[in-house]
Amino acid sequence: MTLRRTGIRIAAVALAVVLAGSAYSVLSWAAAAGAVEVRNTETAVNVATALHSVTPMRERLVALTVDDGPSPLYTPEVLALLGKYDAHATFFVIGKLAVRHPDLVRREVAQGSEVGDHTWSHPKMRLLTAAQTRDEVFRGADAVTGITGTKPPFFRPPRGELTPEVSQAAAERGIPIALWDVAVDHDLHSTPLVKASWVLDRVHPGSIILMHDGGGDRSGSMAAMEIVLRVLKSRGYRIVTLSELLRHAR
Fold first, then answer.
1. Where in the chain do CATH 3.20.20.370 domains reside?
2. Pseudo-torsion of CA 65, 68, 70, 73, nearest 10°?
3. Catalytic entry in 67, 181, 185, 213
4. From 52, 88, 118, 212, the catalytic residue
5. Are 198 and 228 a contacting pair, CB within 8 Å?
6. Residue 90, Cβ neighbours under 10 Å: how many?
7. Is the pTM above the cut of 0.85?
8. Residue 117 catalytic?
9. Which of 12, 109, 148, 249 is deepest in the core (most CB within 10 A)?
10. Reported CATH class of domain 54-250
11. pLDDT tens across 169-203, in order?
């Protein structure tokens, strides 16, 4: 991935690791949900950062990210909502589910969305050794590439558990880490309207929204997501992939 403009400020949870081989570099960063300034460079320095939003954003754009699928029950519903509201998403798929339902992954790509790596089996990353972490990240990435034919553009650790071992494994594989700044499922027991209101009260241009199409009963999330998409469209937002969000950063 190449960030084409100087002075992009990307909100980040942490600076994970520096690895030779990319086209951009970190100039400065703040550790606690601070800001990382990124610019073009010809010095071939790669950084793995944990993104949770992209600001400033000159357009009314937000990225929608969908975790824990693919699911025969909920993924088609998400794809239908995306089509209805002319939206796209970054699907963070679990590798072992992706190879079980490759047709759903291909549908995601065919509809204009992108597919990221969410590990092979969705473990608790903080409990894994470095070797186990690497295996989860790499097997998940291999599953995505085997189905889509392309390298996953982003990695997201389950539950957002960003350990040093996760950062190292993602950097070795050359996959940027992306988290989020607002979640539809912040409260699993709330009503769809409460879930949607939580998102709509906090979203801003450059936000990364998290929702789920797997991992349990997501019927309330589906209803909330339709409200969110409808209201965001009425406010003049476009709902895009993470890659597109980054392309439009100032």
1. 54-250
2. -100
3. 67
4. 212
5. no
6. 26
7. no
8. no
9. 12
10. alpha beta
11. 999 999 999 999 999 987 777 899 999 999 999 99
